[in-house]
Specification:
GO terms for molecular function: ATP binding; proton-transporting ATP synthase activity, rotational mechanism. This is ATP synthase gamma chain. The protein has six helices and five strands, in the order H-E-H-E-H-E-H-E-E-H-H. By secondary structure, it is of the alpha/beta class. It has a five-stranded mixed β-sheet, sandwiched between helices.
Length: 291
């Protein structure tokens, strides 16, 4: 059995840890609100792009873009959105398992001769992905939790250029979709090639015919599609960051709850031992008085 001094030291240590996890929970809550705000500010841009595309697709003409080209798939790129920091539960472990499942799924779909390129966004997921064999690991160190829109644009341009030059035939995003602070779901989406079904994300506008396009609808379509791809990648990156902070909040909350239970248990054990010592001293005193 531990002595009173040891129990007192453990109680102090757990108290200190509880203060740290509480502070980290507050920091993650502030970061979550900041990223959620950035995600909300992105949506008007996304919605306007979608309205423009719906107007174009609602006309009688058929539009083609190099980014919508469907071709035989020989090389697949997976962009995995992990975290730079830990203490967020099973966030990165679940993403790595999801990546392995995606590779197995693609092998079953396309065959085992398919080549893979992995873009690991985040130091933690990079440490797991770097151990994989027969997979090309791309450098995405310029994109992290402190990056801005320029870094997202750089990654989008790199993926787009490699797709257009036929170095990559498909780009798939793997990430956590943010539902609420207590719920984040693993999700994936095809970034390239862009499918017409994804483009028509909203209801096609039947009154698009009277629109006058300047210089012409085909040029506008080819201009809007790269913006659509960039906004998709930016939205996914923000969703991943939001999910990361939500996962960290839940992990710190669970740590706080466990610390409280441990403190109650240690305090009870400390009180019992203290009472036993007091009882033993009283018995010694009473025994001495009788003698």
């Amino acid at each position: 059995m531990a002595s009173m001094r040891e129990l007192k030291g453990r109680i102090g240590s757990v108290n200190s840890s509880q203060k740290i996890t509480g502070a980290m929970k507050m920091i993650s809550s502030a970061k979550l609100r900041k990223v959620q705000s950035a995600l909300e500010h992105l949506m008007p841009f996304r919605n306007q792009l979608q309205n423009t595309i719906n107007n174009l697709l609602g006309a009688d003409s058929e539009y083609q873009s190099p980014l919508t080209e469907q071709r035989p798939v020989h090389r697949v790129a997976f962009v995995v959105f992990g975290s730079d920091e830990g203490l967020c539960g099973a966030f990165n472990v679940s993403l790595f398992k999801f990546l392995l499942e995606a590779i197995n799924r693609t092998n079953n779909e396309l065959g085992t001769k398919t080549e893979y390129i992995v873009y690991p966004v985040g130091k933690k997921i990079l440490s797991s992905v770097s151990k994989m064999k027969d997979v090309e690991i791309a450098d995405v160190s310029y994109l992290n939790s402190k990056s801005g829109a320029d870094a997202v644009k750089r990654l989008t341009d790199e993926l787009t250029n490699r797709f257009l030059s036929h170095e990559i035939d498909r780009v798939e995003l793997l990430y956590f979709h943010f539902k609420s602070i207590g719920s984040q779901a693993l999700d994936s989406r095809i970034l390239l090639p862009v499918s017409v079904a994804d483009l028509a994300g909203g209801e096609l506008l039947s009154h698009a015919k009277p629109y006058i396009y300047e210089p012409d609808s085909e040029t506008i379509f080819r201009t809007v599609i790269p913006l659509y791809v960039r906004s998709n990648l930016h939205e996914t990156w923000l969703e991943s960051r939001t999910s990361e902070q939500a996962a960290r909040i839940m992990a710190m909350q669970m740590a706080n709850d466990n610390a409280k239970k441990l403190l109650d248990s240690l305090q009870l054990e400390y009180n019992k031992l203290r009472q036993q010592n007091i009882t033993a001293e009283l018995l010694d005193i009473l025994g001495g008085s009788v003698q």
